[in-house]
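TASK: fixed-backbone design
INPUT:
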């Protein structure tokens, strides 16, 4: 579970609590998180000031958390979809961001790039194998 204040809680399939941690204190400074997505090895969170944080762990934060490149959007994005890193120990995560204005962005810690998809705005994305 991801809460608006940046707290993440993980549970077993039997609903027993496993871990709880705060991703980054900057999330609350930026008004909390209205949008988040989880992948098997981490969580991505968008703040109310449109900053994107990626945490490469579901058990801890600290050095596992990084801030991504600036999104440069004027409205809250509609959806996030994490493209997991190529290797389990890699931190090269990319996030697909569906924006309210229509463009779809590919975001990582270095850049936010418009994918030039014309049919948006999109409301959801999914990773397939």
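OUTPUT:
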């Amino acid at each position: 579970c991801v809460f608006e204040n940046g707290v993440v809680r993980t549970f077993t399939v039997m609903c027993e609590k496993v871990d709880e941690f705060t991703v980054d204190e900057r999330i609350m400074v930026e008004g909390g998180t209205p949008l988040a997505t989880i992948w098997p090895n981490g969580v991505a969170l968008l703040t109310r000031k449109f900053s994107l944080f990626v945490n490469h762990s579901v058990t801890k934060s600290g050095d596992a958390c990084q801030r991504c490149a600036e999104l440069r959007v004027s409205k809250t994005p509609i959806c996030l979809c994490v493209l997991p890193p190529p290797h389990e120990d890699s931190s090269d995560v990319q996030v697909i961001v569906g924006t309210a204005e229509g463009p779809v962005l590919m975001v990582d810690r270095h850049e936010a790039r418009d994918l030039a998809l014309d049919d948006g705005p999109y409301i959801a994305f999914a990773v397939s194998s």
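COMMENT: The chain has one helix and ten strands.
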